[in-house]
Amino acid sequence: MATGPSTKRFLAWAALSGIVSGAVFLALAELVALLAARSASPILAVGSFVIDIVPQPFKEFAIATFGENDKVALLAGLGLAVVIASALAGILQLVRPPLGLVILGIAGALATAATLTRTGAEPLGFLPPVLGAVVACLVLVLLVRRLRAWRDATTATSARRTQRTQAGEHVDAPRPGVDRRRFFVLAGVTSVAAVVVGIGARTVTMATSSVEAIRRALRLPAPGATVAIPDGAELDVPGISPLFTPNDDFYRVDTALTVPTIDPDSWTLVIDGMVDQRVELTFRDLLDMGLDEYAITLTCVSNEVGGGLVGNAMWLGLPIRDVLAMAGPQQGADMVLSTSVDGYTASTPLASLTDEGLDAILAVGMNGEPLPLEHGFPVRMVVPGLYGYVSATKWVTELKVTTFADDEAYWTPRGYSAEAPIKFSSRVDTPRVGTPVSAGTVPIAGMAWAQTVGIERVEVKIDDGEWQAATLSNPVNDDTWVQWMLEWDATPGTHYIACRAVNKAGETQIEERAPIAPNGSSGIQRPLITVT
Ligand SMILES: Nc1nc2c(c(=O)[nH]1)N[C@H]1C(S)=C(S)[C@@H](COP(=O)(O)O)O[C@H]1N2
Ligand SMILES: [Mo]
To answer: What region holds the Oxidoreductase molybdopterin-binding domain (predicted)?
Structure first.
């Protein structure tokens, strides 16, 4: 093995490899924290941990010395410790493998412990430090492997050079330049990626978590009118969807690459266009108008027959017709173009928003809490009976009274109809395709919705049998889905189960298959169930 200055040079590059791996650790942890466990940023968790364990006199010393910058000083100190430890890991990985990996592993374990012992630690809190450490190990192994190839090529070249001068013959020389370049390309690419990902993820987390904190602290007024939930509104069948979809399970569909974060204090809603007077409302103005509860089932036009892009919530809000009335829509208008803070637009028939008998609302609450950020915080629209893309604008900031002739919404030039009432439908939740059931009495159960009209009946057909009426849950109202259930005497083999709804207008669910574009799917769901 070569000695002297060239070895020192490789030690320095090994230290750099370690630092790059450390950066990868932190960056990946930030990214995973952003995606899976908001509060589990390892560097911040370790920082808080340090704050918690340092003795009080030391804290006072730090505050006295650094003043308001004590947190900055702490983070700078931590950063320095990370740089030193990862440089050491890099050097050890070159000269005493796998000691470098051991150091990274210990760092990962410490970060995980700090993260999981934080108050309010999330169940997935271990993911950011663990994944960060694993990928950092991988990067370190690859970097040191390339570094070693470069070093070996360099020593081999000088050895051959000596040989050649002695024997006077030509030998194909190894090319240290190539190995050197390969090392620097990998080190360069990973460090740039780490910086971009790390800073990007942290920035997004900080930008969004402050509004998340505002949201969490927000106390919405109690509803004036509440929705009565009748007895028997929910059937007791394992595997059926709950009557109200928990916010965390509620489907999410939007074009927003990052969730818009709006401080309700700076939010306003403008009502303009073909109106007698332009109106601008603050969040406070809305709350002061008085809020009521509304149970409404939302459906996405992209929901395939039997699909999951449908959910039911107890919304807290107020009628859109009340805010429209303040502006005074003019003769000739037939549409309201709602705009989101991110530029998304939806076209809703004016009549659907002004109809006294229809609960088209501006919602601020969802299932007992302020709207989650991804569901439109602080204010969104919900209109019973219309697909979400033509009615349910999240993060709404403007209602422009206009005409279908003059204005077009986001999805209209993209292959979807300008107007799109929901096609009423039903789905089987249990039993499921791919999950065999035992022969005997098996409940077949699922959901059915016909917003604004109501579900009259759901029928089930086994194989080529007769359509049989299922038992319905007691409906909350006609805007809300119902549960249905039929006890089936299942015999061994495979069976097709089909379901279809009949609405209160006496219409039967459309059997003819239609794709989701341009205005919603239709057809009958017919899962094939295995009975053992
Ligand atoms: N700002 C904005 N609002 C939007 C959308 C969007 O892309 N951007 N998508 C709409 C569609 S297609 C549907 S189905 C509903 C979904 O609402 P959810 O994500 O709260 O379930 O939001 C609607 N509101
Ligand atoms: Mo949708």
So the answer is: 257-407
66: left (phi over 0), alpha (psi -120 to 50) or beta: alpha
Q: Which residue has the tokens 């090392």?
A: 183
- Cα–Cα distance measured from residue 157 to residue 6, given in angstroms and rounded to the nearest whole number: 13
Residue 523: which of 490, 500, 492 has the closest Cα? Answer: 500
> What stretch of H or E contains 60?
helix 56-66
- Residue 381 alpha carbon, nearest atom of ligand 1: 24
Q: Cα(379)–Cα(340) distance, rounded to whole angstroms? A: 10
Cα 430 to middle of ligand 1, angstroms: 27
The CA distance from 271 to 277, in Å, is: 8
Give the angle subtended at the CA of 525 by the CAs of 519 and 529, to the nearest 5°: 155
Distance in angstroms (rounded) separating the CA atoms of residues 370 and 380: 11
Q: Which pair of tokens denotes residue 444?
A: 């077949």
Which CATH architecture does the domain made up of 247-414 adopt?
Alpha-Beta Complex (3.90)
d(CA 111, CA 91): 22
Helix (H, G, I), strand (E, B) or coil at 27: helix
Least confident of 32-36, 264-268, 491-495, 501-505: 32-36
CA of 61 to the centre of ligand 2 (A): 56
Ramachandran class of 177: left when φ > 0, alpha when ψ lies in -120 to 50, beta otherwise: alpha
How many of the other CB atoms lie within 10 Å of CB of 266?
Answer: 9
Q: List the residue whose alpha carbon is closest to atom 10 of ligand 1.
A: 389
Ligand 1, pocket residues at CB < 6 Å: 250-256, 298, 300, 340, 342, 344, 375, 388-389, 392-395
Phi, psi (5° rounding) for residue 282? Answer: -95, 170
Place 3 in a pLDDT band, splitting at 50, 70 and 90. Answer: very low
Residue of the nearest CA to atom 15 in ligand 1? 388
Structure tokens belonging to residue 290: 């008085």
CA–CA dist 228, 319 (Å, integer): 19
Domain extents in the chain: 5-160+177-209, 247-414, 425-531
Distance of CA 253 from the midpoint of ligand 1 (Å): 5
Nearest CA to ligand 1 atom 12: 389
Q: Identify the residue whose C-alpha is closest to ligand 1 atom 8.
A: 254
Instruction: Please report the beta strands in 350-454, taking only residues with DSSP state E, as ranges in sequence order.
Output: 361-366, 369-370, 380-382, 396-402, 425-430, 440-449
State the DSSP code for 96.
Answer: S
Which pLDDT tens digit goes with each residue over 79-121? Answer: 898 899 999 999 999 999 899 999 999 999 988 888 887 655 6
CA distance 387 to 417: 11
Fold designation for 425-531 = Immunoglobulin-like (2.60.40)
